[in-house]
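Data deposition worksheet. Section B asks for the primary sequence of the deposited chain exactly as it was used as input, without tags or linkers unless they were present during the calculation. Section C holds the resulting structure in token form. Section D is free text for depositor observations; keep each observation to a single sentence. Incomplete worksheets are returned to the depositor.
Section A, Depositor: J.P.
Section B:
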Amino acid sequence: MNTDYRGRHATIMGLGHFGGGTAAARWLARHGARVTVTDLADKEALADSLALLADVPIAAMHLGGHREEDFRDADLVVVNPAVRPNSPWLHVARQSGARLRTEIELFIEACPAQIVGVTGSNGKSTTAAMIASILRTRGGQSHFRGVQTLSQGNVAGAAKIGTVPCAVHRVFLGGNIGGSLLEQLPEIGPGDWVVLEISSFQLWHFSLNARMPRVAVVTGCTPNHLDWHETFDHYAAAKQRILDGQTSDDIAVLNTHDPEAATWPQFVRGRLIPLSPLEELPSLSLPGEHNRANAACAAAAAMGAGCDRQAVQQGLQSFRGLPQRLQWLAAVEGRRIYNDSTATTPESTIAALQAMEVPVWLLAGGKNKGCHFDPLAAEIALRTRGAAFFGSSREELRRCLAAKQPQLPCTAVETIEEALRWCWQRSRPGEAILLSPACASTDQFRNFRNRGERFDELIRELANPLNR
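Section C:
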């Protein structure tokens, strides 16, 4: 979709720290829009994002609060996905006839390439990166099929996809996993592929007739972000949007190993690609049954996009994982240290615990997103030597664990530094220390990346004998 933004009034609602707001502001200004940036946070809190706009002609900058005229007089409002659907400012914009878009929908509207979209409660970042790894595999032209053949709707698996080789293509990975791709649009052509990680917030804000990804992947659906969605039905409906917004020519992949997602074929509007049995997948460098399910989803999506089995095998075998996703950091005095800061749900922490092959001491905690901790507490009682809980949910976690296993060593402390110190003092060589919080980070950190970076710093300090 080609939209002329010259002279249009565009309001960026929520600059944030992940790059979407700044990328949208830069892109719209470059295309001639009169850009207003508004955010509830003040200049000091947004210093990192504001620095990225230093060379951009912003028409107005209103920080520390919103103004009605910025929404009443706007032609376009770019909504930060974290903004709740019932925001009164969005109501003003709608009543005034403004178009409401998220940064990722702006990108999808303008993107000439074929798009793979990945969503789910857990595993979507890893699955998206696995798909990109497969698509980037260079094993000969036969690994990739011309995109023209996909539009014919003849996609029941790789064997039925056309045989026209695509001689030149590039793969771009973005969305929640890697930030905005708006500024890379001039580099992206019709023969390329874009893999996007898409959150429930972003999907909920998609406009009614939004273009959906050519290939849609759902890695699973368990209760998450209920502090924002309020009910599981609301949350699930957001995830289902990626499926029911497709056409009959599109392709869908569901993680049928997930009990909820396995019931969703009724929402599929495209052709559903079945998963291969997990035991048929190549060996992976990542531990855990959950990562084999992620790989099965990635394989099905890549084959739906035209890759053959050799490309799938090579792409998966070469994939080494992502930072802060059950990432091995170091061995310190015989203890193996893992950073799983992206585990922001109980289910993802359960999966991490199930993947560990040595006795483990767990650090968990942060801001509860409306999830129940009882299943997690049962897994902690079964699979750990002990646990240190930190952040605003620490007492809730401690109580849940005490109810399951009162004899298991545990503590509730305020900070991640105290939690690490407690686990270190009790752990022994041959054991593991795992940060897998099961919660959001925003009670104490800017975001989960910031939390993981702080843990990395602490481990580097710990590895220096002069600091102990």
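Section D:
The domain at 327-467 is CATH 3.90.190.20 (Protein-Tyrosine Phosphatase; Chain A).
DSSP finds 17 helices and 17 strands in the chain.
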